Amino acid sequence: MALITTPPSAPRIISVDPSNGSMTRASIIGLTPQMFEDQGFKEVGMDKVYGRAKEARCAGYQEKGIEMLVAGVTGPMKFKGLTKQSLGHNESVILPYIVRKQRTTINANYWHVYAAAAHPSAGSNGVHPGAYRLTIRNTGSTYASSLVQIQRYFLPSKFLIVDHTNASTGAAFQAQFKILGSSNADSGGISQAYVDVEPCIDSTDWAAASAGTKLPYQPTSGLAMVLANSISDFESWGQNHASDNPMKLLAFWVQTSRFAWEYNDEYVKSLTASLTSEYFKQFRQLPLAEQRRQQYAHYKRELLNTFFYGQKINDNQTVEGYTDLPRVMDPENPDLLLEYKANTEGVISQLRNSSRVTDHLGNAFNLAALVSTGYQVKRAREGSGMSDVNDIDIMVPRELSGLILQSMVTFYKAKYGVDVQRQYNPNQELRHDNQVALRWNTYQIPDDFGGFNLNVFADDFFSDRIAAASSIGNSAVSRARSAWMIDWTDVALEMGASESVTRQTNVNDALFRYVIKPNMKHVQLESETFAVTVSDPNRSAVVENFSNSVTGLY
User: What are 540-551's pLDDT values in tens digits?
Assistant: First the structure.
């Protein structure tokens, strides 16, 4: 864990290692202008973003751990960033969204035998008397891909294993079939295929076989796997294996937000003077500096809220309907369309849209469900290319962190009867300049529950939300509780542009005609155009709306 010591005025970020995605192996980095230039951030004005953060730090603003995490995933828009759409007549408009490609893992190893019946031609026209017609679908597994035209995966001469049980006795059967052919059987929007198979028993022997011998080859449902074909080099066979495009397009919405600051010449002197240590103390005492700190804190808090909770500007914010969004027209030419306005969707909003947010309906926090979700997240991250996924992080309110500790201690002793010291590492910290940025407890989740380290981070960001809701009522408090299992290497705050302009009072105005040293008024307008992106929602999860209690694992 490399910590870089920097001047107190340097903005800081928490950088999470993309190979494992865990905050427990993160580094706190104090940024310098050269680091921004080296990363090519100037192309979208990221040097201005850095300058504002440094100025706020000089004015006394201190980043929180959550803010440093967001700063660590902030950077210029990937690829070409913002694009334009032609409107005709030599006019164009900046599109209010950016498009990203996402590579997914194609899982096509297991199939659901949904129904089965004897083949319509069994015993005639050369068809095996024991032939069956299986209706096969995608499984409902968390790890399964939603594939279409699935008959492509069941080629003639391949073999099929079907695991099923006897409906009467519960005895386990595993039968091997040879695939005769397949056809599309989609119905009601459900992808399914008819797969014709014959048992791997000679036709003559089948006729003489007992009912008990035939029973394993007469499934009504089950789990199927496709095996390799058996083709001699002297036989004619050339079926193409199925392949699916693992790439899909994702659209992320772009928002422009402005920060305005009005000040006088005295503040300008503060900014341009040499920041010696003695002057720095005086600067900190200036009322204008305190105003700047407070205003910047408000802006950063609102940007932070947008990063997590931002939602669409209205129901027209779709890729197909963006031309019905609010329009921005040229002030001098009201007929000239410049752009459409949209709001970026925050991380939590995008996860909610992808069914990655679990609502506990005000009930107790379910630790067993959390561990199960952690294992699913682990599998998703491994499937997307991470090489070292042994740690799963979750950020929770301080109160929940304590309840999880009590539950885990009880769990270890009750189920395994072992000393908790081997499975529990308390009070881990990530520090920088004697400030604790992150604090967590680590729990070893046994292999039979997923086999990973669950790192529970307690942060005031969550507790403050609960405290704010406490005066409203118990239901509001439950609604305010949330826990985030976010992959910080998969989310980003992408900056498309950063603009600024400074204007001042006209010194030639009659108001200053008889003034030798006018105290000029200045207005500084700054804007940032950004998009929040979540590349693969399956790598993250959120739990919300739970009571101040925990149901355990055991």
Answer: 999 999 999 999
